Amino acid sequence: MDGIQIALLGAALAVGLAGIGSAIGVGIVGQSAAGLVTEDPDKFGQTLLLQALPGTQGIYGLLTGFIIMQRVGIIGGELLPLSVANGYAFLMASVPIAIVGLLSAVYQGRVSAAAVGLVAKRPEELGKGIVYAVMVETYAVLALLASIMLLFGIPV
Amino acid sequence: MEVRVNPTRMELNRLKKRLKMAERGHKLLKDKRDELIRQFLILVRKNKELREEIEKELSGAFAQFLLARAVMPSVILEEALMYPTKKLCLEIHKQNIMSVYAPKFTWVEEESTQGEESSIYPYGFVETTAELDSSIETLSAVLSRLMELAEVEKAVQLLAEEIEKTRRRVNALEYVLIPKLAETLKYISMKLDENERGALTRLMKIKDVVRAKM
Amino acid sequence: MVISDQTVYAYAVGRVRALETRLLDRGRLERMIEAATADEALKVLAESDYAGAVGELADLYDFEQLLAAELKNVFKTVLRISPAPDQIAILALRYDVHNLKVLFKEKYLGLKSDLLIDAGTLDHENLQYAVNEDDFRDLPEQLRKASEKISEEFLLNRNPQMIDIAFDQALYSRLLAETARLKSEFLTGLFTRQIDLINLKSLIRVKRMRFDRDFLRKVLLLGGRLTPERFILLVDEPLEALITSLAMTDYADLIAEGVRDWIERGSAARLEKLSDDFISAYLKRSKWTPFGPEPLIGYLWAKEMEINNIRLILVGKINKLPAEAIRERLRDGYL
């Protein structure tokens, strides 16, 4: 196997796993919100905001994937000849956002779904619900940061 | 008052007998009325006591029942009381109070259950409130006295009717029949006296005529 | 797997959260109690989610139908939105049991009644057929056994209480068997607590009726957290002994307050209210579970309490009960 394939596996994992996490998270909140909106259609705007929160991990994953693609030259230029060791370096750099993105999105989804319940009873407390959900986001951001720093640290 | 009788001595004797009988009847009826009233008062007093007692207990039981009703869905309450555990067999006899036939109740409580444990509570304990128990208990305890009350009340009612009837008879005798008979008697005796005087006058007149011709 | 299966409840819980906000709050119930007449209390009720139903009510005295329809709708809604209707359906089992009791009594009395409840899970016609033909094959196991026992024994002893007792026992053994099958700790906790509270009340009632321990043994439900023996031992003791004997259990406060009130005023009202509140408090602990059947079950219970409270107030208002008598029987909200 060439280094490039291993690096691309890293990009695929970052986009894929974080994306799966976000899909699940957004899905859970969506169901919960649909239940609430069935009874109370006025809450659509507020719940949509909550539903969007677990979606960010997917974006972080995609961002990481782009950076890998750009670094190895798939985007904008010719493919770099990559050693196997360098390929593994890219794969490993993608691991933080892939795993943390997957898990944090799911849990953020659960927190947001609970916040949907909060909004049902106290619509004025939407802000606090968002804060709880965003706390989970912190770790996705840290993971993204780690991934990006790792990626730019790889000498090619 | 118009009296249409033959003013004869026979009629007079007949009427005199009738008057005597009417007076005796009047006295007897009066005695009967007084005794009826005495019995009536006894019963009425008993009735009043029973009624007050029972009404007090019943209103308590009803209040409890109402509370039980308030905390149980009506269908569940009705299901609980749907099948009675006891049957009451009532027999009615007559009893004679001063020739008034009042009903006399005797009753047997038949257990519809034939098991070893028989209770007045026909329901289970899961779906029913405990407030139902005491109301059922009171109602079941009050039942026999309720029958007694029914008996006494009916007797009082019948006695009252009888007193009214007797009173009317006494009055009829006292104010109608007896005065009428007395008046008739007076009329007949007056008429008889009149006839007698007429006959006497006639005889004296004839005597005078006969004497003048002689 | 990281994703717990319970997230299938997301929709149902979201919906119940919205429904919960429409439960009558204490303030509205209080206004109904304060209303001068039953009609005015009904008007207060009409300002709530019951507006439509109250509007269709032809006569004030038909309110039972309104409440029965509401109960049926609530069960239908929750059953429909629940991803595991099994767990909800067993809560409706008591209505099936009620219907069976009614049908058996109808059969032995040889009459018809209109006491069936619609909220049950088993079809009325099937039940009717089973009772009429003595064919209980299609009934759930425990109910089948109870039915067979009754159809064998009733004609011998003609004790209607036995019908109720046999079915009550069957109901709770069915509920415990089902929760064991569903592996629902939450529901097991609910039913074992209910059994304890019912047994506690049965003990006091049996004592007041002056029946013996053999009778109590027949009445007590099995499978509670407290063994029947604990209650049977107390039959010949004064009621005060109950308070000390159960002082180390979860029920200590409720027994101390409720039983004392029963001794002093001869009324079970306080104990019964506290028992229902105890169950409400148990359900409330799991109310905020984000995913799972708990909020659904809690909502059903809350709705049932609400319906009972409305009935209490309306019956009280129609019969001009003092507000205090109504208030002391009013169950705590789940809100």
Description:
The complex is a heterotrimer of chains A (156), B (214) and C (335). Chain A contains five helices and no strands. Chain A is mainly alpha-helical and 156 residues long. Chain A has a single domain, classed as lithium bound rotor ring of v- atpase (Four Helix Bundle (Hemerythrin (Met), subunit A), Up-down Bundle). In chain A, α1 packs antiparallel against α2, α1 packs parallel to α4 and α3 runs parallel beside α5. By secondary structure, chain B is mainly α. Chain B has one domain: Helix Hairpins (Orthogonal Bundle). In chain B, a hairpin with a 2-residue loop joins β1 and β2. Chain B starts with 8 loop residues before the first helix and ends with a helix. The model of chain B has no long low-confidence stretch (mean pLDDT 87). Chain C has a domain of 124 residues: ATP synthase (C/AC39) subunit, domain 3 (Topoisomerase I, Chain A, domain 4). In chain C, 69% of the residues lie in helices and 0% in strands. The longest helix of chain C is centred in the C-terminal third of the chain and has 25 residues.
Number of helices of chain C: 18
- Regions of chain A with pLDDT < 50 over 5+ consecutive residues? none
Estimated radius of gyration of chain C: 21 Å
Ends of chain C: how far apart? 34 Å
Using DSSP, what is the number of strands of chain C? Answer: 0
Overall SS class of chain A? mainly alpha
CATH overall fold name of chain A:
Four Helix Bundle (Hemerythrin (Met), subunit A)
SSE sequence of chain A, one letter per element:
HHHHH
Q: What is the approximate shape of chain A?
A: elongated
CATH H-level superfamily of chain A = lithium bound rotor ring of v- atpase
Order of helices and strands of chain C: HHHHHHHHHHHHHHHHHH
Taking the sheet with the most strands of chain C, its summary is: none
Q: What share of residues are in beta strands of chain C?
A: under 5%
Q: What name does CATH use for the topology of the domain at 1-81 and 293-335 in chain C?
A: Topoisomerase I, Chain A, domain 4
